[in-house]
Amino acid sequence: MHVDESDGTDAELLERLASGDQRAMAVVFDRHAPAVTRYAWAIAPSRMDVEEIVQDTFLTVWRKAAEIMIAEASLLPWLLVTCRNFGMNAVRKAARARAEQFDDDAPQGGADVVREHHDAEAARDDLRWVLDEIERLEPIDRQVCELCLVEGLPYAEAAERLDLSVGAVKQRVSRSRARLKKAVTLDEV
């Protein structure tokens, strides 16, 4: 998907959202729904929850547009944090529902729920850690990672958006991946 810059920056769209501009909401959705949806898939307790998490995320941006302050030019970090919060709520709700299904004669089932919840929490912590590491990258490397790794854009499209060569984008992604891998290795020691 190619974002039409004539639709405005995220900051401009946010201002239009605050005044109730439905066209701005459609542009924000088209621009960021793929990344938010991929993120929701990473944290949702079930497939059925993904759609609800994404809808709740964009409904929240619509309702709170006047209150939202974004750092830099992208609304995506705010959307991902909001998505994560809805995802965590869904995980807790699912864990409670599973725990209620087990009767007192099945102590092993309760242990499975705790283990699944712990595994989901650990996966979310890992994803949060990776996003924090991406934030520490140089601005151009961070933009390349957000476009290629978070949003899933092809290298050629990211190169076009950032006015870089495809080779430069590949090199920056490779270097950033190596840095993230090194940070993970140091963190595990």
TrEMBL record:
Residue span, RNA polymerase sigma factor 70 region 4 type domain: 128-180
Outline the extent of the RNA polymerase sigma-70 region domain: 29-96
Question: What Pfam families does the annotation carry?
Answer: Sigma70_r2, Sigma70_r4_2
Report the superkingdom from the record. Answer: Bacteria
**Cross-referenced InterPro entries, in alphabetical order?**
RNA_pol_sigma-70-like (IPR039425), RNA_pol_sigma-70_dom (IPR014284), RNA_pol_sigma70_r2 (IPR007627), RNA_pol_sigma70_r4_t2 (IPR013249), RNA_pol_sigma_r2 (IPR013325), RNA_pol_sigma_r3/r4-like (IPR013324), WH-like_DNA-bd_sf (IPR036388)
Q: Does the keyword NAD apply?
A: no
Record keywords, A-Z: Sigma factor, Transcription, Transcription regulation
The record, for SUPFAM superfamilies, names: Sigma2 domain of RNA polymerase sigma factors, Sigma3 and sigma4 domains of RNA polymerase sigma factors
**Transmembrane region(s):** none
Q: Which family does it belong to?
A: Belongs to the sigma-70 factor family. ECF subfamily.
Protein name, as recorded: RNA polymerase sigma factor
Species assigned in the record: Agromyces neolithicus
